[in-house]
């Protein structure tokens, strides 16, 4: 029993480490988050590993600890949300409420994954050892393998799509019409840039980005059109490439706009390093927010090209 208990805890923590690596790519954050998440992963894995022995020994009152753990994890979600919202004022490009809620929800759900992984690992061991009389060492090996497979399956099931899965990203020209109206690609009227030196900076250092929905799908277009998703794209660019502006230069804040004809999203961005390949990769890596999906069943069979040709 002692061996499987510790094995289950280790597998539960490993499952969190796998997802933490993914979290850091999708939600860049402070290094000290690692410590708090590992402690929570240990607590969650311990609860999952102890659940089966508690049930076998008919210690049903111990199950109430699960409700306490769930409440604690919800509090972690609230604390994470409050922390990120308090930092919004310091960001040159804000995350937006939708992105913050997505991050907070993710940190809560990952802890439940630790519970499930360790619980199923111990369950397999008890079934093999108690019901089928499999040798204890063999049962330990099999349950360890099953636990790792479950962690991998959960990782795949909880991994979210990114912008690159639903849209094509390309670099387009930046220009000005009527002297001061910013034009990105074929869309003009992004914003009004009054100062000549600011316009010259856009033309010299800025990169125009077009995000076009794949397969001319209105479903994909509706995701891109979501305000929270647009802001998440801007923040993803900022977190990976930086933005060449100061807090008193709002004119260089990226403003995504929709082209009503193609349903594409266009924006002008001034990165710290003008590398078009890195810009495209940063946009494509932005996770799709759950709040941006919606249902949109009426758009399922509607084609953007079909509308243009009518």
Task: Provide an overview of this structure.
The protein has 310 residues and is α+β, with helices and mostly antiparallel strands. It folds into two domains: 2-159, no CATH class; 164-309, no CATH class. Helices cover 60% and strands 11% of the residues. It has twelve helices and seven strands. Helix 1 (2-26) runs antiparallel to helix 2, helix 3 packs antiparallel against helix 4 and helix 4 runs antiparallel to helix 5. The longest helix is centred in the middle third of the chain and has 35 residues, at 97-131. The chain is elongated. Mean pLDDT is 88; it is low at 306-310.
Layout of secondary structure:
Layout: H1 2-26, H2 33-56, H3 64-87, H4 97-131, H5 136-158, H6 163-166, E1 167-172, E2 174-177, E3 181-184, E4 187-192, H7 196-205, E5 207-213, H8 218-225, H9 227-241, E6 257-258, E7 265-269, H10 276-284, H11 290-293, H12 304-309
Antiparallel strand pairs: 1-5, 2-3, 3-4, 5-7, 6-7
Helix pairs in contact: 1-2, 1-4, 1-5, 2-3, 2-4, 3-4, 4-5, 9-10
Largest sheet, order of strands side by side? 1-5-7-6
Low-pLDDT residue intervals, each spanning 5 or more residues: 306-310
Helix and strand element order:
HHHHHHEEEEHEHHEEHHH
Summarize the amount of helix as a percent range: 55-70%
The DSSP helix count reads 12
| Count of all domains | 2
Structural class: alpha+beta
How many E-type strands?
7
Task: Tell me the distance between the termini.
Answer: 70 Å
Shape: elongated
- The fraction of residues in strands falls at 5-15%
Q: Would you tell me the overall average pLDDT?
A: 88
C-alpha Rg (nearest Å): 24 Å
Give a short account of the largest sheet.
4 strands, antiparallel
